[in-house]
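Need residues for this backbone.
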């Protein structure tokens, strides 16, 4: 494919990690990193954790404190962690904990974060997406309708059973981003133009 999306490629190749995904046992660890805005639909992750005791969620970013009332009133309050914005070394332990990154609404730059830390991404299939969706499609990431409870429950069951192998998904995304969507590759394309 000759055309490649090149906006927002801000991750240097040296910052990409290949930390192995922890073994899935009786819990599924989901992480969202980004702003809490209406089109991001972050509250869907609290609902998912409330409906399934195997789901543990970390919500990291600006304005996440607005979700505290919903999270603390949920029966999943002990499985939901809400944190301020984190990057680099501060974000790394949370990404190492995660089995997958999730985008329950608009995806944006979260796909770069997933690739940077060697995690696959699950993206909402019913939301309007940014150009980053092209990367997820090319890397054959998971798309699920987060507004459909049976689809999200089936995804969790598939991850728990091992039917959805996460490491190959993460490796494919990280490799694609490393080869085509980093600062270096964007600069090279600019020079070639």
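Answer:
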């Amino acid at each position: 494919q000759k055309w490649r999306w090149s906006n927002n490629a801000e991750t240097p190749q040296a910052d990409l990690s290949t930390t192995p995904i922890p073994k899935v046992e009786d819990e599924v660890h989901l992480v969202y990193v980004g702003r809490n805005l209406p089109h991001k639909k972050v509250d869907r992750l609290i609902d998912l954790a409330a409906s399934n005791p195997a789901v543990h969620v970390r919500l990291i970013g600006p304005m996440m404190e607005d979700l505290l009332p919903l999270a603390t009133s949920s029966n999943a309050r002990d499985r939901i962690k809400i944190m301020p914005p984190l990057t680099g070394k501060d974000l790394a332990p949370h990404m190492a904990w995660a089995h997958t990154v999730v985008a329950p609404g608009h995806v944006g730059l979260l796909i770069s974060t997933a690739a940077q830390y060697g995690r696959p991404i699950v993206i909402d299939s019913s939301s309007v997406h940014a150009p980053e969706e092209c990367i997820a499609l090319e890397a054959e990431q998971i798309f699920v309708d987060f507004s459909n409870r049976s689809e999200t429950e089936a995804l969790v069951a598939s991850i728990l059973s091992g039917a959805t192998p996460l490491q190959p998904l993460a490796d494919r995304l990280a490799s694609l981003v490393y080869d085509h969507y980093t600062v270096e590759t964007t600069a090279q394309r600019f020079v070639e133009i």
